[in-house]
Write a structure and sequence with these properties.
The complex is a heterodimer of chains A (308) and B (270). By secondary structure, chain A is mainly alpha-helical. Chain A has a single domain (7-271), classed as ABC transporter involved in vitamin B12 uptake, BtuC (Orthogonal Bundle). Chain A is built from 12 helices and 2 strands, in the order ααααβαααααβααα. In chain A, strands 1-2 form a two-stranded antiparallel ribbon. The longest helix of chain A has 35 residues, at 273-307. Chain B is of the alpha/beta class. Chain B has helices at 49-57, 79-82, 103-110, 126-137, 156-169, 186-202, 214-219, 238-242, 246-257; strands at 4-15, 23-34, 38-43, 64-69, 72-73, 86-89, 174-178, 206-210, 223-228, 231-237. Chain B has a 6-stranded mixed β-sheet with strand order 6-7-8-3-9-10, with helices on both faces. In chain B, a hairpin with a 7-residue loop joins strand 1 (4-15) and strand 2 (23-34). In chain B, helix 3 (103-110) packs parallel to helix 5 (156-169) and helix 5 (156-169) runs parallel beside helix 6 (186-202). Classes of the chains: A mainly alpha (308), B alpha/beta (270). Chain A binds chain B through residues 158-159, 161-164, 166-167, 169-170, 173-174, 176-185, and chain B through 78-81, 83-84, 88, 94-101, 105-106, 108-110, 112-113, 115, 118-124, 167.
């Protein structure tokens, strides 16, 4: 096993898991809590990546994050606006924004389909030079990403327990009850989608600095992968306080990356990844349903037998 | 402020106008409720009772007419803004609460109505938690010890009782009860109904209650209304109401509506 799966490969999967875990957190808000399938996630991820890369190349490795997050908050706002004020169905709103973002992303990278960040300072390159310690050199990326994820989980724990957060959670649960509590669901959906898109954007910007590049196709399939992570996470942690559930989604993302890494070991071509994540999502949704069906058929067969 | 709590003047609502499904659910309804009035409403299915409630809560805007609540014209006020002053309970106990959230969280959402000036970024305070426990202990259902439980785990009766507390915790100007005990078993229905009467009495609430139980229609509250085909066809209170029997009420229905009661849900219960 040690030869089969090295420590550095494990660390790389954890890095990717934590990084993409932020998108799983975004879907935790939009999909689990608001009960909205936000299909603009793909484009939004690329937007965060593109804006993050551009600002990093301009020599502002730290400013890259608020810039990317602000850009994605705007994208989330538009998605919400379409479905709450302009009567567009929520799934369609996501698809429309996703399509529009392709052009925006292209422009954000200076009218180019990709952008290199090589040679510019990133938070990772800056952190690397802090210490010569070999153990630190191995783990500094994980440390940074873990810190970011923990801060975000803590933020969500606080935010989703405020009165505004409670209204957002109730919107996906029973919108008419939210209205009866003198809160406009259009408002809670807007805030929720903005926060969720912001997290997607943060993830995108981190990827730009982590991979030192950005490509117009980075976001493709992100929503499915994040859903797969979220589903795995929700099987790991079913209930508990928000912090635990949110961190469960990130753990799901880490586990997903680990599974992918193992699959790669069996010489699975990288192109198969998206099919694999599609299958994982399908399985995660189908299995609980199939279980119910199977127990029903079992019961029926048993009954038929006892009659015969 | 006005002595009238609710004043509806010639309120009209037509659904699907200009189609074969056109239905005038409210046809020039005028109704005045004094402060502290507790009126019951009877009428066959499709008579416009629930539509009347929805017109008051603002689920849709009316086509014509004016609605005043405590002297304020709310005809074009948005639904979520009206809800500060209106408590609304439905027949389905699932309608009034969020199942995946705890009792405490549900109550603090309902309590938002009171905390107009509170920051949206504040959490539930210890004092509020204590207040919620107190409110729940009135029910005598032991819910005050299950504050952290998700509401989805409660029975229909418990959920309806919780919804009742949530709707009246911040005293509403008017409480609308839409057959709120109809989906409960008889024993639980009695408990919830007694609670309703107690809460309405203690807070001297103005209340409208839809029921299909003719005994309830005459016994509870101080006024009985009957609706048919988008009109209020009968309005009795005081002496007139006190001398009325269930048979009278049914007879009135026949005369006023000019039709026979056949397979309707209006049946003698008990």
């Amino acid at each position: 096993m040690v030869q089969f799966f090295t420590g550095s490969q494990f660390i790389t999967s954890m890095e990717l898991g934590l990084l993409y875990g932020l998108v799983a957190l975004a879907l935790f808000i939009s999909f689990t809590l608001l009960n909205i399938a936000d299909l603009s996630t793909d484009g939004c991820f690329t937007l965060g990546c593109a804006v993050g890369a551009s600002v990093t190349v301009a020599g502002h490795p730290f400013l890259a994050f608020p810039a990317a997050m602000a850009a994605c908050a705007c994208s989330g706002f538009v998605t919400a606006l379409l479905q709450t004020r302009l009567g567009v169905q929520s799934i369609l709103a996501g698809i429309i924004v996703n399509t529009g973002l392709y052009t925006i992303n292209f422009l954000a990278m200076g009218s180019s389909a990709n952008l290199n960040v090589f040679g510019s300072d990133t938070i990772f390159s800056l952190a690397k030079n802090v210490s010569e310690n070999p153990l630190y050199r191995k783990l500094y990326t994980v440390i940074i990403l873990l810190a970011v994820v923990l801060v975000i989980c803590a933020f969500l724990h606080w935010f989703l327990n405020t009165t505004l957060g409670l209204s957002i959670r109730a919107t996906g649960d029973n919108a008419s009850m939210v209205r009866a509590s003198s809160v406009n669901p259009a408002f809670t959906i807007t805030v929720g989608l903005c926060v969720s898109s912001t997290l997607t954007g943060l993830s995108g910007a981190l990827l730009a600095q982590y991979q030192k590049s950005c490509d117009i196709n980075f976001g493709t399939g992100q929503v499915t992968i994040a859903l797969a992570s979220l589903m795995i996470g929700m099987t790991l942690v079913r209930k508990g306080p928000i912090f635990v559930r949110a961190f469960g989604a990130v753990l799901g993302s880490c586990l997903y990356r680990l599974i992918v890494a193992i699959a790669m070991k069996f010489n699975m071509p990288a192109e198969f990844l998206k099919l694999a994540s599609a299958i994982i999502v399908t399985a995660a949704i189908c299995i609980p349903y199939m279980r119910g069906q199977i127990s029903f058929y079992r019961r029926r067969i048993r009954k038929d037998r006892s009659r015969a | 402020m006005s002595e009238h709590m609710l004043e509806m003047v010639h309120v009209t609502k037509t659904f699907n106008p200009g189609t074969v499904n056109e239905k005038t659910a409210l046809n020039g309804v005028s109704l005045v409720l004094e402060k502290g009035d507790f009126a019951t409403i009877v009428g066959s299915n499709g008579a416009g009772k629930s539509t009347l409630f929805n017109a008051i809560t603002g689920a849709f805007y009316t086509d014509d007419g004016t609605i005043l609540l405590d002297g304020e014209d709310i005809t074009f006020k948005k639904e979520h803004l009206r809800s500060r002053d209106i408590g609304h309970l439905f027949q389905d106990p699932l309608m009034g609460t969020a199942p995946h959230m705890s009792i405490e969280e549900n109550m603090s959402l309902a309590y938002l109505k009171a905390s107009r000036h509170k920051s949206m970024f504040s959490s539930i305070t210890r004092r509020e938690k204590e207040f919620f426990r107190e409110q729940l202990s009135q029910l005598g259902m032991g819910l005050e010890d299950r504050m952290k439980n998700p509401v989805g785990l409660l029975s229909g009766g418990q959920r309806q009782a919780l919804t009742l507390v949530m709707a009246t915790m911040v005293t509403p100007k008017i409480l609308l009860l839409d057959e709120h005990t109809a989906a409960l078993d008889p024993a639980t229905a009695d408990i919830v109904l007694d609670l309703t009467k107690k809460i309405v009495r203690e807070n001297s609430l103005t209340c409208l209650m839809i029921t299909h139980n003719m005994h309830q229609a005459l016994e509870i509250g101080n006024r009985t209304l009957m609706m048919d085909n988008g009109h209020i066809i009968l309005d009795k209170s005081g002496e007139e109401r006190a001398s009325m029997t269930v048979e009278d009420l049914l007879e009135q229905f026949r005369i006023q509506a000019g039709m026979e009661l056949d397979n309707d849900r209006i049946l003698l219960s008990e």
